[in-house]
Write a structure and sequence with these properties.
alpha/beta; Rossmann fold; Serine Threonine Protein Phosphatase 5, Tetratricopeptide repeat; DNA Cyclobutane Dipyrimidine Photolyase, subunit A, domain 3; 3 domains
Length: about 500
């Protein structure tokens, strides 16, 4: 088999290969793309080694947490792109969408029974780690999970990092070893595999393909048992949309990123986080596009691994600031989620944050809102209402205002624990990039994770960092943003 980075492979069982079986199975659950994908590359390598066809199963359950029209539409648009990408290859692509709760049960095991080896995605968040381990333990055939999450393999860092600076320094020490170990841009390029004429009829009779659903022009969600109240947004999902977003960012916004990324009305951010979450684009592809634009190579690196957020890469200011968000802050979240099963629990906060928030738990609150009031953007604060309005309408909140959004929920909730519950519920229900290690980083930063104590001590927050709408209004031009997104606005 071709050389493959072993630190990206997790063996989910000790079952043997079944070289006489019908095909190699790639169960695509997190890295939903045909390019820059270590999981697909591993599956292709196995298929070549065993001279067997390759089947790619991309499935969508109907009863995952926060399932909705918004999220399903985004995934289905990606599935449509993937079907097109695999059409001209020897891969047998099997898109499956569960039409009723429990209808998809047994599909993976049935396909695995016909498989030489099963490859899947190693994504360290939500129910996915438990799901793949449960399936792997039950299978009589070898099953592997492959890490295609970030530039740094998750397994390379053995401990949980407590600050962005310490993790950044670690990245600066270790990333030079990773630059020559990127996934192949197209794992199927130049590959000759036997074809699988069709999915066995015994399988499709019980679990029909989703081709008809993908071909439908509208009304898809009405045919699925998901929450239709969380409506689809104008942002289209899929690999093609992701690459268009990347090209647009690199050509027209990167040079403004450092100066304008905190200005909601300037739209200088990449808008790639949802595509990263659903696996429609890879960090490796983004990095390669950026490096190509900058004319960068590893020889440009500055030698000292100081942990500073600028100057190490030897790129433009906008590129370095963007890489700090893309690599340091994003992969810091993957480090936490992969090492601690309680990453989404209050007790995973730093000791100092737990102590100060607990000490102020009974402080009087001038304003206290229920989940329903927060959800409906019905607070006294027009700026907060606008941020929530953007989340409801677009499935995102501008990066800077997302921090303020969380700080005010903390300040206006009966307790810090209830504030955490509200943030997780609203973010995971409405944000296209919710349910992700990176979004948990943002939520928990509000409560003190990766931060330090700040004085003076304040009511409710104690020494947790304070933010105010008044300060944001003074620093930023927000009148247009409020007009667009506050309830009843002109957006």
């Amino acid at each position: 088999m071709n050389a493959f980075p072993g630190e990206r492979v997790v063996e989910l069982n000790r079952a043997p290969l079944q070289p006489e079986a019908d095909f190699v199975l790639y169960w695509m659950i997190a890295f939903r793309r045909a390019r820059w994908n270590f999981s697909l590359q591993r599956a292709v390598d196995w298929a070549c080694e065993l001279s067997k066809p390759l089947m790619v199963l991309e499935a969508l359950s109907c009863d995952y947490p926060w399932a909705s029209d918004r999220l399903d539409t985004f995934v289905l648009e990606g599935m449509k792109d993937n079907r097109a990408d695999f059409e001209s290859t020897p891969v047998c692509y099997f898109p499956y969408v569960e039409s009723a709760k429990g209808r998809g049960r047994g599909l993976v095991r049935e396909l695995a029974a016909r498989s030489c080896v099963v490859v899947t995605d190693d994504f360290p968040c939500l129910f996915l780690p438990r799901m793949i381990r449960s399936v792997g333990q039950d299978l009589p055939v070898r099953m592997e999970a492959i890490d295609s999450n970030g530039l740094l393999p998750i397994a390379m860092a053995e401990s949980v990092f407590k600050t962005a600076r310490s993790f950044r320094r670690y990245l600066q020490l270790r990333l030079p070893d990773c630059f020559d170990r990127f996934p192949k841009e197209n794992p199927l390029s130049g590959v000759s595999l036997p074809g699988l004429p069709e999915i066995p009829e015994k399988i499709t009779r019980k679990w029909p393909t989703a081709d008809g659903l993908l071909d439908a022009s509208s009304g898809v969600s009405a045919r699925l048992p998901v929450d239709g109240r969380v409506e689809r947004v104008g942002t289209a999902g899929g690999c093609r949309a992701a690459r268009n977003k990347l090209a647009e960012f690199l050509s027209s916004r990167l040079d403004r990123y450092s100066l304008e990324r905190n200005e909601p009305d300037r739209d200088a951010t990449s808008n790639l986080s949802a595509f990263l979450h659903f696996g429609h684009i890879s960090v490796h592809e983004i990095f390669s596009g950026l490096a190509g634009l900058e004319g960068w190579s590893p020889e440009n690196l500055r030698a000292a691994a100081s942990g500073k957020s600028a100057g190490w890469w030897g790129m433009s200011a906008g590129a370095e600031d963007f890489l700090d968000q893309l690599l340091t802050w994003r992969e810091l979240g993957f480090n936490m989620c992969s090492k601690r099963v309680d990453y989404d629990r209050f007790d995973s906060l730093p000791d100092w944050a737990i102590r100060t928030l607990s000490a102020h738990e009974n402080d009087p609150r001038q304003y206290v809102y229920s989940l329903e009031k927060f959800e409906g953007a019905k607070t006294h604060d027009p700026l907060w209402n606008a941020a929530q309005g953007q989340l409801l309408r677009e499935g995102r909140i501008h990066n800077y205002l997302r921090m303020l959004w969380g700080k005010k929920i903390l300040e206006w909730s009966p307790s810090a624990r209830e504030a955490l519950s509200t943030m997780i519920e609203l973010n995971n229900k409405y944000a296209l990039d919710g349910r992700d290690p990176n979004s948990y980083t943002g939520i928990f930063w509000v409560l003190g994770r990766y931060d330090r104590p700040f004085g003076p001590r304040r009511p409710i927050l104690g020494t947790v960092r304070y933010m105010s709408s008044q300060c944001a209004m003074r620093k930023l031009k927000l009148a247009g943003y409020i007009r667009r997104f506050a309830p009843g606005g002109s957006g």
